[in-house]
Amino acid sequence: TQFVGMSDVDNPLTGDHGATAVFGPQKGVKSEQVAPIDAALARFADLLEAALGRTARDQPGAGAAGGLGFALHMLGAQFEPGAETVARQIGLDAALEGANWLITGEGRSDVQTLHGKAPFIACRHAQAAGVPATLLSGAVDSAALPRLAEHFSGCFSPAPGPITLEVAIRDAARLLADAAEQLTRLKYGAR
C-alpha cells in the first residue's frame, strides 16, 4: 500500500516549533498545558519509533493535524504540499489568467500562514501571474501583519469588532459578504 500525505505545514511533531507549541494555543490549549502535552507526544513518539525501528518526529509535516503527519510518516507516506496539489487540481494558474484581483483567506491568519498554507500558496501563484492578492480571514493576528503585508495587498478580518466565536460562526456568511463588498468598494471605488 502506498500513502500520500498532503500537508501545508512543515512543523515537526514536538519542540518549540512542534504541533503543541505552535497549533495548540490556536485550538484552545492553555500556555501551562503546552509542555505536558508536548512531553506526552514525545513519549508516544519514543515508544512508536522504537517499536517500528524508524524515526519521523522531526520530518517536515510531522506536526501537521495534531500529529497525524507523524503517523503518516511512520507508515512510510510520501508527502506533497497540499495547497500546491489543490492549486494544480483546480487549475488556479489558468483561473488567474486575465484576473485582476485574488481574494483568499482562512479561519485565522498568523505567521504560520506563510509556511505553505493555502492562502500563501494562492498569493504566490497570483504574484507570479501579476495579480494582487488580498487576505480576508476570520481573524488576523496583528503581530503577524508586518510579515503578512510583505506578501498580501492588504489583510482584513470580517469581524466588525469584538464578537464571540459563536456569533462569528453563526453570522459568517453575512460577515464575509459585507467585508468582501467593502473590499470591492475600496479597490474599485464603487458607490
Rounded radius of gyration (Å): 19 Å
Q: How many β strands by DSSP?
A: 7
Give start-end ranges of low-pLDDT stretches: none
Identify the CATH class of the largest domain. Alpha Beta
**What is the name of the CATH architecture of the largest domain?**
3-Layer(aba) Sandwich
Helix % is 40-55%
Shape: globular
- Major sheet details: 3 strands, parallel
Per CATH, the superfamily of the largest domain is Glycerate kinase, domain 1
Q: How many domains comprise the coordinates?
A: 2
Count of helical segments? 9
Proportion of residues in β-strands: 5-15%
Strand order of the largest sheet: 3-5-7
- Structural category is mainly alpha
pLDDT averaged over residues: 92
CATH topology of the largest domain: Rossmann fold
Amino- and carboxy-terminal Cα gap: 58 Å
Give your account of this protein's structure.
The protein is mostly helical and 191 residues long. It folds into two domains: 4-81, no CATH class; 91-188, Rossmann fold (3-Layer(aba) Sandwich). The protein is built from nine helices and seven strands; from the N terminus they run βαααβααββαββαβαα. The chain has a three-stranded parallel sheet, sandwiched between helices. Strands 1-2 form a two-stranded parallel ribbon. Helix 4 packs across helix 6. The mean pLDDT is 92.
